[in-house]
Amino acid sequence: MLADAIAEAFPVVRVDSLVLEAARLMVEHRLPGLVVTDVEGSPCSVLPAADVVRCLVPSYVHEAPVLAAVLSETMADRVVDKVGSKTVGELLPARPPELAVVDHDDNLVEVAAVMARLGCPLAAVLRDGRMVGVITASRLLERVLAS
Amino acid sequence: MLADAIAEAFPVVRVDSLVLEAARLMVEHRLPGLVVTDVEGSPCSVLPAADVVRCLVPSYVHEAPVLAAVLSETMADRVVDKVGSKTVGELLPARPPELAVVDHDDNLVEVAAVMARLGCPLAAVLRDGRMVGVITASRLLERVLAS
User: Fold this and answer.
1) Is A88 exposed, middle or buried (0-12, 13-18, 19+ CB in 10 A)?
2) Number of C-alpha atoms within 13 angstroms, CB side, residue A48?
3) How far is residue B100's CA from residue A49's CA, in Å, rounded to a whole number?
4) Dihedral angle sign, alpha carbons of residues A40, A27, A47, B109
5) How far is CA B52 from CA A10, A46, A145, B91, B113, in A?
6) Number of domains in chain A
7) ipTM, two decimals
8) SS3 at position B71
9) Which intervals hold domain CBS (chains A, B) (predicted)?
């Protein structure tokens, strides 16, 4: 069994996509993170949903969490202010989580080894430098348990 | 809006659950991780799916990844050997990922602040010390975008 046999479509955003678009994709697909590609479409990182949540938290709450309990502002007030024109690239941490990347003809042990080494719950599958899909850790486990 | 208004059911394993059971739950619900509770049912950590994948990779592949491409062994051969009687607690790293935990009457800014601080894509919601559900980052974003 090779990687491209179990790769699946998966929501992707580019580094120049709006954070709001990323948030909507996370909500629509109920995902804890998205694959991020560069402007040419090459997968380069993962945007964790927790990082989108982080940018909606007022900075004075980060500094004094107790204020969260007493503030009158809602996070909804901040969506447009905070992420209205912000891009995914601006939100990624200085050292963004490394995305596992495998070749379409890698076997499943190779895929597992890369995921395990990076502690990454998904791997982008490339063929001729283009992403043809994603293998999630749960998809990989599914194949292993089924075989 | 308070935490318990948006908390949802979420698959949970105990530290003494079998890894195989955890893997099956990840597959069934297509999840990148599960909430782990102690034997009394108090949420204490998160088991990432990548950690389950890791224990299926032969140790000589961890040491020399190039061997993954040429080995004849499949991961399926290893499932029973490697995780047959292993528990979730045995699999968790020495410093397991910290699970965000919130009170049922915390507001959504408080929930977001805890998730953001821990970089955790989900928060367990407690009422009187018992877990009543989980709020995922995508669920939180859904409420924020909808309001």
Assistant:
1) buried
2) 21
3) 14
4) positive
5) 21, 20, 12, 8, 29
6) 1
7) 0.88
8) coil
9) 94-147
Q: What is the pLDDT of residue A8?
A: 95
Strand partners, B125: B102, B133
Nearest CB among B50, B51, B76 relative to A147 is that of: B76
CB of B141 within 8 A of CB of A49? yes
List, for residues A102-138, the tens digit of each pLDDT value. 999 999 989 999 999 999 999 999 999 899 999 999 9
Among all chains, which residue has been given the structure tokens 């909507």?
A24
CATH number for position B18: 3.10.580.10
- Decide if B136 and A61 are in contact by the 8 Å CB cutoff: no
| pTM, two decimal places | 0.88
The whole domain housing A128 covers 1-144
Measured distance CA(B121)–CA(A78) in Å, rounded: 20
To which residue do tokens 């447009």 refer? A80
Rg (CA), chain A: 17
Q: Which residue of B has its CA nearest to A111?
A: B68
* Predicted confidence (pLDDT) per residue in A4-24, tens digit: 999 999 999 999 999 999 999
Give the closest of B26, B113, B145 to A65, CB-based. B113
Residues in chain B with CB shorter than 8 Å from the CB of A136 are 30, 32, 49
> pLDDT tens digits, residue range B16-36?
999 999 999 999 999 999 999
